[in-house]
Amino acid sequence: MDAATGAELHAYLRRIGLPVERAEDPVGEDLLRAVVAAQIATVPFENLDIHRGIPVDLDVAALTAKLVTGRRGGICYELNGLLARVLRGLGFDARLVGATVLAEGVPGPPLGHVAVVVRADGQVWLVDAGFGGEALVEEITDGDPGAGTPIEVRFDSGAAYRTDGTVRPLSDFVAMAHWHSTSPRSRFTGGIVCSVTGPDSRRTLSCAPDGGYRLVVTAGGSRTVHDLDSVQVVEVLHRDFGITLADPPRPRTFGSQA
Prior knowledge:
By secondary structure, the protein is α+β, with helices and mostly antiparallel strands. It has helices at residues 6-15, 29-42, 60-69, 76-89, 174-182, 230-241; strands at residues 45-46, 93-103, 106-107, 113-120, 123-131, 134-139, 152-154, 160-168, 192-197, 201-207, 213-219, 222-228. This is Arylamine N-acetyltransferase.
């Protein structure tokens, strides 16, 4: 399967703030957790381009240009698609598996999410760096999420999804990536979100279609909300998320949900 190699792999490691020498580390849980933690802290979960009229592009060159060279973030297909490719470059057996998001127990559309199944040294992990700022590196000891075993994932926030037990190429998610980019029923067209999760805090910028910009900082059990104007949004995107835009993105209208 396609894997990041050479200069591309080193560029990714620099992008997430890890020394390029980590590419020579033994393949195992320590390296896996280090990469996932570094990615969610530096590569935002964000849908800004969707509201700028730019649909998600899952071509490998486009992913690298946007997330690595362009120092942007993305949604699950982009974040976990890039992560799987990098993990393969580091020596892991990393494959994508489809998932259905559960909203109050009600399943959304098939392939509405994607996670990564990672195998190394006889162990199997379900890994996720692209679920709204949530992160997952969970060893699976009962069944195989990439070989027919559905796994239900529930986060402390209440968010949940169920994998479908089927390994898929990234190209299988192109149609749903387009749907999420254009449909008024998608959770990504309903407003702007940009989030990073560090070891001690999470920072989330949001803007609803009929509201203003807010920066929510969660750290040490406390939650602080900051209302932002347009100038502050550009500054916060650059300072807190490493994203440089000339103008603040505004939520677009994507038509009726009917």
